[in-house]
Design brief:
There is one protein chain. With 100 residues, this protein is mainly α. It is 67% helix and 0% strand.
Length: 100
């Protein structure tokens, strides 16, 4: 709702920007704390945090559970494996799940 309002209302646009900045900061700290040294070669914490944030975004969750008819449980498994594959040097846990 905020994203939609941001197109026409300066206050909503500012709020949307601040929320995204805060989410990215939280994701950066999470990636650094849990993956830090295990990040794939050439991938820094900032880029890993952007990927992690995109994969766990409310918009992607809505797309997977509504448009692709995934259950919340299966969308969570897909997000975790995608995050692991997108950021971690350990590729053994990668799995693929597609929309029907």
């Amino acid at each position: 709702m905020i994203r939609g309002a941001a197109d026409g209302h300066p206050f909503a646009a500012d709020l949307c920007t601040r929320m995204l900045r805060r989410r990215l900061d939280i994701q950066r700290r999470t990636v650094d704390a849990y993956l830090g040294d295990a990040l794939r070669g050439g991938l820094d914490v900032e880029e890993a945090a952007r990927r992690y944030s995109a994969l766990l975004s409310p918009e992607l969750y809505h797309l997977l559970t509504t448009e692709c008819a995934w259950t919340p449980r299966s969308s969570g498994r897909g997000s975790r494996s995608s995050c692991s594959g997108a950021c971690s040097a350990d590729r053994r846990s990668r799995t693929r799940t597609a929309c029907p």
